[in-house]
């Protein structure tokens, strides 16, 4: 497969040199008018500069808070700060286009400005989750050959280990670090004050890498997915445009870190693309998130199913404490949305959840439906601009109603940084996200499980998320995770890890009650033959359930039976 790329403007050719072999790329599809981008493209010009140039600099761009209190920046103010930080990167730090810059911080306006400044300067941003430890940061620094970093002073400790030559996780490539939200005379803010509020965007190519988004998978070995400047705009020009009908009047709020592509899109790139306003929260609880939604008049919320469930329960307990009357779209992604959570949210708020499936490799959501287009039990239809099909093990399309592997392609797709796993993710020009799906005759896609979450017990295929959805309907269950456990007679049996609601205690009687409940809710052969009561489930920083950790624990609990 031949890939024709616009010539690179990068002085440092590291990322262009480490793109996957051309025959391992997915087929990219640019068949819509909104996806026709010029060869010379710096995405920050479209996300930020264009609004100021068009006389919209007075509109509110970012709201949030920092150590000094509330923050509210217009597009013109954000542009000025971005330009000053870009000068710090290029002039003070001496960074050249194409070099990688590690970014480390929570969802603060300053973190967002640093992100945009790096892209505007032609650098390649390597964002990292706030909770990563030095050992994890070192893997990323080494793999991406990162020489410089901007880091929130509140997160200094772990990255500090990586620049300490005596520490076990010293990263030799990292030569300089500047701290932001710092009172230091050498901090980012102090340096910004010495620079002009004007900065000409580096003339990057639409096919220059601007983002390396890392994802660990189940092995713990990080995979860096490389995205181009046009990929940032493509994710903005499809899902929010066609599914959410986004406009400049929207106000978005939520929880995913902007270091995570779900958060980068929903909480930064989407609103900026449409001239809307983003509210960035660093610390939140279900209660504080709902208060923020009311306070800022949010029209869109982005978070994970677990948070929606907790908010719905709180709304039912305190119906008059939260209005939520400005919300139009509540977007769920990151993990499977149980139908019980969808219905609980709808009952509490009157809002139909907008479910979606996307991924770091394809950068954002490619299957979703909203409002009247929602169909029970389904995530939705393919987002305009993407193509999807269900295939068998030989990559042959299967008939509607037949379970198989999801294959997707469109204007974005997987390009791992120098990684042999590229050939596993892309087959015959299609991205294979690793999900088992079924598509009906009307083109609605229904999630079954991750490919490795499908449990085969006594010849039956059992989707773990379906069992989880049934469990969540039991009055005693607060959270749950379902995996397969090895069994000599059945091959595997269904094992459920269950977190009970407050003040409830697990017992053999409750285990039997829950098992009988599942038998009455879905096909009896799908019930969990083992129920493990636990205090908490392992989750990622973005709230995604880590089923692989439950699978690692399963043998110990299974041996107790």
Major sheet description: 9 strands, mixed
CATH first level of the domain at 229-235 and 247-411 and 419-457: Alpha Beta
Number of strands: 26
The helix fraction, in percent, is 25-40%
Uncertain regions spanning at least 5 consecutive residues: none
From the alpha-carbon coordinates, what is the Rg to the nearest angstrom? 24 Å
Tell me what portion of residues adopts beta-strand conformation. 15-25%
Number of helices: 17
Q: Structural class of the secondary elements?
A: alpha/beta
> What do we call the CATH homologous superfamily of the domain at 229-235 and 247-411 and 419-457?
ANL, N-terminal domain
Residue-averaged pLDDT, rounded? 93
Distance between the termini: 53 Å
Strand order, biggest sheet?
Answer: 2-1-10-9-11-12-13-14-15
Would you summarize the structure shown here?
By secondary structure, the chain is of the alpha/beta class. It contains 17 helices and 26 strands.
Explain this structure:
This protein is of the alpha/beta class and 561 residues long. Among the domains are: 229-235 and 247-411 and 419-457, 3-Layer(aba) Sandwich (Rossmann fold); 460-558, GMP Synthetase, Chain A, domain 3 (2-Layer Sandwich), CATH 3.30.300. Helix content is 30%, strand content 23%. The chain is built from 17 helices and 26 strands. It has a 9-stranded mixed beta sheet, sandwiched between helices. It is globular. It starts with 13 loop residues before the first helix and ends with a helix.
């Amino acid at each position: 497969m031949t890939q024709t790329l616009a010539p690179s403007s990068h002085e440092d050719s590291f990322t262009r040199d480490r793109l996957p072999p051309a025959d391992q790329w997915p087929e990219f599809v640019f068949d819509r008018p909104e996806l026709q981008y010029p060869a010379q493209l710096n995405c920050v010009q479209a996300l930020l500069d264009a609004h100021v140039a068009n006389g919209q600099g007075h509109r509110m761009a970012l709201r949030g808070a920092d150590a000094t209190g509330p923050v509210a920046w217009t597009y013109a103010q954000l542009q000025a700060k971005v330009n000053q930080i870009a000068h710090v990167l290029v002039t003070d730090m001496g960074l050249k286009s194409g070099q990688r810059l590690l970014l480390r911080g929570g969802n603060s306006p300053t973190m967002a400005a640093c992100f945009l400044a790096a892209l505007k300067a032609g650098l390649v941003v390597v964002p990292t989750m706030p909770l990563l430890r030095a050992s994890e940061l070192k893997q990323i620094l080494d793999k991406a050959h990162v020489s410089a970093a901007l880091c929130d002073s509140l997160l200094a400790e772990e990255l500090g280990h990586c620049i300490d030559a005596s520490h076990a996780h010293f990263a030799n490539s990292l030569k300089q670090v500047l701290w932001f939200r710092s009172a230091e005379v050498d901090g980012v803010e102090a340096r910004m004050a010495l620079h002009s509020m004007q900065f000409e965007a580096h003339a990057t190519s639409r096919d220059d890498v601007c983002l390396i988004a890392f994802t660990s998978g189940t092995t713990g070995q990080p995979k860096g997915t490389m995205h181009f400047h046009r990929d940032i705009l493509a994710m903005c020009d499809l899902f929010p445009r066609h599914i959410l009908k986004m406009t400049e009047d929207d106000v978005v709020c939520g929880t995913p870190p902007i270091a995570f592509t779900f958060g980068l899109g929903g909480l930064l790139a989407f609103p900026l693309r449409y001239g809307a306003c983003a509210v960035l929260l660093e610390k939140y609880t279900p209660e504080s998130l709902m208060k923020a939604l009311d306070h800022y008049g949010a029209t869109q919320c982005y978070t994970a199913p677990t948070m929606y469930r907790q908010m719905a329960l709180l709304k039912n307990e305190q119906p008059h404490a939260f209005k939520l009357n400005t919300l139009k779209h509540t977007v769920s992604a990151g993990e499977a949305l149980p139908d019980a959570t969808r219905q609980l949210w709808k009952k509490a708020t009157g809002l139909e959840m907008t479910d979606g499936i996307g991924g770091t490799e394809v950068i954002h959501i490619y299957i979703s439906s909203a409002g009247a287009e929602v169909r029970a039990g389904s995530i939705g239809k393919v987002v305009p601009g993407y193509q999807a099909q269900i295939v068998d093990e030989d990559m042959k399309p299967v008939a509607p109603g037949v379970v198989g592997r999801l294959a997707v392609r469109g204007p974005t797709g997987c390009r791992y940084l120098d990684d042999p796993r590229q050939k596993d993710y892309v087959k015959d020009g299609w991205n294979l996200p690793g999900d088992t799906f079924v598509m009906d005759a009307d083109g609605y896609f229904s999630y079954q499980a991750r490919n490795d979450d499908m449990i085969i017990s006594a010849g039956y295929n059992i989707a773990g998320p379906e069992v989880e959805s049934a469990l969540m309907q039991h009055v005693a269950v607060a959270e749950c995770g379902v995996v397969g456990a090895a069994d000599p007679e059945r091959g595997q049996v269904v094992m459920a890890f269950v977190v009970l609601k407050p003040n409830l205690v697990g017992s053999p009687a409750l285990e039997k009650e829950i098992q009988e409940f599942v038998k009455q809710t879905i096909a009896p052969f799908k019930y969990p033959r083992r129920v493990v009561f636990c205090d908490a489930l392992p989750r990622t920083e973005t709230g995604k359930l880590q089923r692989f950790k439950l699978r690692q624990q399963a043998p110990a609990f299974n041996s107790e039976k």
